[in-house]
Amino acid sequence: MLPPIDWAQPWYDTVRPAFERAAPPPDGFIDAFNAAACALDLRNGAGQPLRFVPQASLPDGMAYEAFIGATGQVPTRDNLHDFFNALVWLTFPGIKRALNTLQAAQIAQAGVGKSRGPARDAATIFDENAALLVVRDNDAGHALVDDLRAHRWLDALYDGRAMFGRDAEVWLFGHALMEKLVTPRKAITAHTRVVFVDDAYFLLTPAARRAWIDREVAAALAGEGLASNGATAGFTPLQVLGVPGWWPGQDADFYRDTTVFRPRRTG
Q1: Which pLDDT belongs to residue 109?
Q2: Among 10, 92, 21, which Cα is nearest to 50's?
Q3: How high is the pLDDT of residue 228?
Q4: b (16+ CB within 10 A) / e for 199-226
Q5: Residue 241: what pLDDT?
Q6: What pLDDT was estimated at residue 30?
Q7: Sign (positive/negative) of CA torsion 156, 159, 163, 164?
Q8: DSSP H helices in the chain
Q9: If you average pLDDT over every residue of the chain, what do you get?
Q10: How far apart are CA 110 and CA 98, in angstroms?
């Protein structure tokens, strides 16, 4: 039995539709998620049907990512971590496939050692803890991103709060991030990838926005790879409960809490 999840929380907007479509019973989710994957015709990078299988299906000594890439089977435990992982597969299958293809290729090239290497590290960080910050591609949008990257939290998240929902929105991706937010804490922070969009994006329905994000980010990952400058290069930290409208009491003092909203390191 999984612990209760507060589906009304805005950070679950990303995967809530997939959960509602699959409608898993409270005592197990693999069969329901497999039916949903079959209905969506989900496949791995090699074109094999994607299915969720018990963890025991993973052969001893074989890397998890390599197994998915070789078989289309996703080893899945009956816990929150793998529950959210499956929901992300059902929500952003293109991005998940692109990440798995990157990871499987790195394993084939370098094997499985004590260190993953920068590309696999970056893919793992993305897979586990990423959020996608979708921002209108104009001067105000670029200024918002500059403020976030400079850790000017008050400017970005308090003074700029009217931009969220109108010119910017946050979509969670990392399944470990979603798991942590079952018990929300102010310090929970995402590794955020910025996606600039034109005005037409904001005219799309939420479902069409999901499909656009999945297609465009997957294509970008396939084209550019990850971690050319280190595992966290290109990610911007974003405290999830600091997203405007996602938590009560977001006054100026909320963002002046330097134990959470830390200034940028210098030097």
Answers
A1: 78
A2: 92
A3: 46
A4: eebeeeeeeebbebbbebbbeebbeeeb
A5: 98
A6: 96
A7: positive
A8: 16-22, 30-39, 64-71, 80-91, 93-110, 118-129, 139-149, 153, 175-180, 206-224, 252-255
A9: 93
A10: 18
Distance CA 92, CA 212 (A): 10
Classify residue 155 as exposed, middle or buried by CB count within 10 Å of its CB (0-12, 13-18, 19+): middle
Q: What is the pLDDT of residue 120?
A: 80
C-beta of residue 179 within 8 angstroms of C-beta of residue 200: no
Q: What is the DSSP string of 197-243?
A: E-GGGGGS-HHHHHHHHHHHHHHHHHHH-S-BTBTTTT-EEEEGGGS
CA nearest neighbour of 76 among 107, 104, 95, 51 = 51
Q: Are 44 and 50 in contact (CB under 8 A)?
A: yes
pLDDT exceeds cutoff 90 at 73:
yes
| pLDDT score of 223 | 82
Backbone angles phi, psi at 29, to 5 degrees: -125, -10
pLDDT of residue 91: 98
